[in-house]
Amino acid sequence: MNKKESLSAERRRKTVLSVVLAAICIIYVLPVLSVVINSFKYNTFVKTDTFALPVGEMWAGFQNFIKGMTFGNYPFWKSVLFSVVITVLSTALILLFTSMAAWYIARVNSKFCKAVYFLCVFSMVVPFQMVMFTLSKTADTLHLNTPWTIPIVYLGFGAGLAIFMFVGFVKSIPLEIEEAAAIDGCGPLRTYFSVVFPMLKPTLISVGILEIMWVWNDYLLPVLVLDINEYRTIPIHIQYLKGSYGTVDLGATMALILLSIIPVIIFYLLCQKHIIKGVAAGAVKG
To answer: What is the pLDDT of residues 53-105, one digit of tens each?
Structure first.
């Protein structure tokens, strides 16, 4: 095969790959597009013309958003507040404590640290359904059933992935940097917060995005642990958009789902460049 034929074959391969990836992208985008379209339709047309554009008599404007936020006797703003509190506190705890634990595990070469690391990795494959009933009882016993204490539960479940990612990045940081800080008189805490923690920024952002998306959209853990009559997150609030005889207003449901995913999408777009920088930095250090 000459050079011209080789270039032609490479061009065809890239074209086929682009078509395949474009098809996969469309498959992933379709559910989101469906939510956007149906959030502006009346409930009747959501059921009968699911994939039709909201034009003419189907157009409901912002009525679905207003109905979703004012439905029932539980204010929507409280659900937003509790979701923000739980997400922010849980992510902050996970990022702080798991990064410190990962630094210790990566730098202290002992059997205990290796055992802890493998236990954290193993926890990633344990299904939540296996422990959810025991966890619910434990959370009630330890009074971890409020928006201000449930982040401790999230810390336990989110530690596995976070430690796994942090340990890999810490191992790529030259040990000489920390030794130089120790020579300058820095203790362990000052070395961590002044030297190690700033260098973890790319991984902190990557882990933070994953944890925020998980906690913000989580339904099962809050509904098991929290008193849903007093504390409702956005997913729980959406679940209770039911009328008489269990009827669901799909238009209002789609509207609130759209409102719930917008903050995560905005946060991801704002931090996307930092993720790319983090991947590039890790590749250079590795």
So the answer is: 888 888 888 888 888 888 878 888 999 999 999 999 999 999 999 999 999 99
86/147 Cα distance (integer angstroms)? 6
Given this model, what pLDDT does residue 246 score? 62
CB 76 within 8 A of CB 69: yes
Closest by CA to 40, choosing from 68, 17, 20, 12, is 68
Distance CA 238, CA 255 (A): 10
In tens, the pLDDT along 127-156 reads: 888 888 888 888 888 888 899 999 999 998
Structural domain that includes position 102: 76-237
Report how many domains make up the chain: 1
Single out the residue of 20, 218, 230, 81 nearest to residue 145, CA to CA. 230
The CATH number that applies at residue 220 is: 1.10.3720.10
Q: What is the pLDDT of residue 183?
A: 84
For residue 59, tell me if it sits in a domain.
Answer: no
- Structure confidence by residue, pLDDT tens digits, 251-280: 888 889 898 888 888 887 887 776 665 555
Residue 205 lies in a domain: yes
Which residues have CB under 8 Å from 202's CB, separation 6+? 169, 274, 275, 277, 278, 279, 281, 282
Q: Among 157, 134, 34, which Cα is nearest to 86's?
A: 157
Task: Say if 100 falls within a structural domain.
Answer: yes
pTM, full prediction: 0.84
The answer to whether position 185 is within a domain reads yes
Give the span between the Cα atoms of 226 and 151, in whole angstroms.
12
Chain centroid offset of residue 201 CA? 17
